Amino acid sequence: MADLALLPIAADLDAGIGLDLVDGDLALDDSLRSAVTISLFTDREADGADRRGWWGDALTPGQDRIGSLLWQLQRRNESPALLTDAKRHTEAALRWLIDDGAARAVTATASFPARGRLDIQVEIERPNGTRELIRFADIWAASLSPYQNRVVSERLLALQQLAADWTYIAQVLYPQVHA
To answer: Distances from the Cα of 76 to the Cαs of 11, 41, 66, 86, 121, in angstroms?
Structure first.
């Protein structure tokens, strides 16, 4: 079954990810790239003071959580421990592929190909034995770029307000989720 194709706007991810049109229709993709992209670049809620997370998870307490904890690595120094944590966070965020039967195995590799740059490579073994390799270059730039030098449009402000309203409603209706 095909997903909408989420494609990098440039060779690395710092320009963002978008949709494309093919013959007037949204481009589709039979690979797991779009699912992996959403799983890795949506912030998963964390424990502690800076919880972040996708607001929609508040609406489904106790169910699957979306996203990864890769965002927690942005301010850490480059080290072997950071590479280990990047691998662990990536594989944890993609565990659902195995649980849902979309993959037999998922293996992540993290590397520093240049100073200040973190790359992640994901190898997915599908149930039929085929392998899919997905690479993400400079994920730190991709994670930070939405917040740098952006002019916020009125429409985006309205969407942010709507998300905040829904989060508030979820917290009032389901206070046990946030206890």
So the answer is: 25, 18, 23, 11, 20
List of residues 6+ apart from 71 with CB closer than 8 A: 43, 52, 143
Q: For 64-73, what is each residue's pLDDT tens digit?
A: 778 898 988 8
d(CA 159, CA 110): 34
3-state secondary structure of 70: helix
pLDDT digit string, tens, across residues 128-174: 999 999 998 887 765 544 444 444 456 666 666 777 777 767 666 66
Q: Tell me how far apart the alpha carbons of residues 160 and 175 are, in angstroms, rounded to a whole number.
A: 21
What are the E-state strand segments in 65-116?
105-114
| Residues 6 or more apart in contact with residue 168 via CB below 8 angstroms | none
C-beta contacts of 2-6 below 8 A and 24+ residues apart: 2/28, 2/29, 2/30, 3/28, 3/29, 3/34, 3/35, 4/28, 4/29, 4/34, 5/29, 5/33, 5/34, 6/33, 6/34, 6/37, 6/38
